[in-house]
Amino acid sequence: MSRRSGILEFAVLGLLRESPMHGYELRKRLNTSLGIFRAFSYGTLYPCLKTLVANGWLIEEPGSAPEDALAASLAGRRAKIVYRLTAEGKEHFEELLSHTGPDTWEDEHFAARFAFFGQTEREVRMRVLEGRRSRLEERLEKMRASLARTRERLDDYTLELQRHGMESVEREVRWLNELIESERAGRDQRRSDPGDPARHDTTSGETDGLPRHRDDTGPDPSDDTVK
């Protein structure tokens, strides 16, 4: 299984954990909610769904009432199929959510993981965020070293492009710093008030004071399109 197909399967399982959907709804949610899937075809989605069904993680159900299915048949159209997450599929998705390895820090996977932080335990969110920040700091160091070596050989436009790339990474590092500090503050606040049941919710994605990304310079979805 390729990395991109794995990310798509992860996203489909996450969306179906929220509620059952048919293929059109899934594609719309993937397009609108997850920028990394902004442009991909049904020819990519349906093989993914079939694989998840074959693995026992999804089941297919008729999505129309009998009279609607009959009307669709008479009109030469297929009745919609609704995809529902199975108990095994939910368990598999939760296992994926708990994973914090280096692949979760990369551009494509991080964007998908971040989209489902609301379903992720706080400690896991923290490890993913810190790993992503570490990866970007390494990338930034390499970019600076490369620019220092090649500055004299670059024309003004290429130099400006490299500076722009560095600034984008720097902005995302600052954004991650804010998120990490917010997660830490929320954890410390829960520890100081053990009598509040809401402080013990380890699955809620709501974090008091969660900083918003004030620009569009986070993980670039245009580089992560599933084809």
Quick structural overview:
This protein is mainly α.
User: How many angstroms does the end-to-end distance come to?
Assistant: 15 Å
Radius of gyration: 21 Å
Low-confidence stretches: 65-76, 197-209, 212-218, 220-227
Alpha-beta classification? mainly alpha
Contiguous helical run count: 8
Strand order of the largest sheet: 1-3-2
- The averaged pLDDT comes out at 79
> CATH class of the largest domain, anyone?
Mainly Alpha
CATH architecture of the largest domain: Orthogonal Bundle
**Helix share bin:** 55-70%
What does this entry look like structurally?
The protein is mainly alpha-helical and 227 residues long. The chain has 2 domains: 3-101, Orthogonal Bundle (Arc Repressor Mutant, subunit A), CATH 1.10.10.10; 121-193. The chain contains 8 helices and 3 strands. It has helices spanning 3-18, 23-33, 42-54, 66-74, 87-97, 107-115, 122-150, 156-192; strands spanning 21-22, 58-62, 81-85. The protein has a 3-stranded antiparallel sheet. Helix 7 (122-150) packs antiparallel against helix 8 (156-192). The chain is elongated. The model is unreliable at 65-76, 197-209, 212-218 and 220-227 (pLDDT under 50).
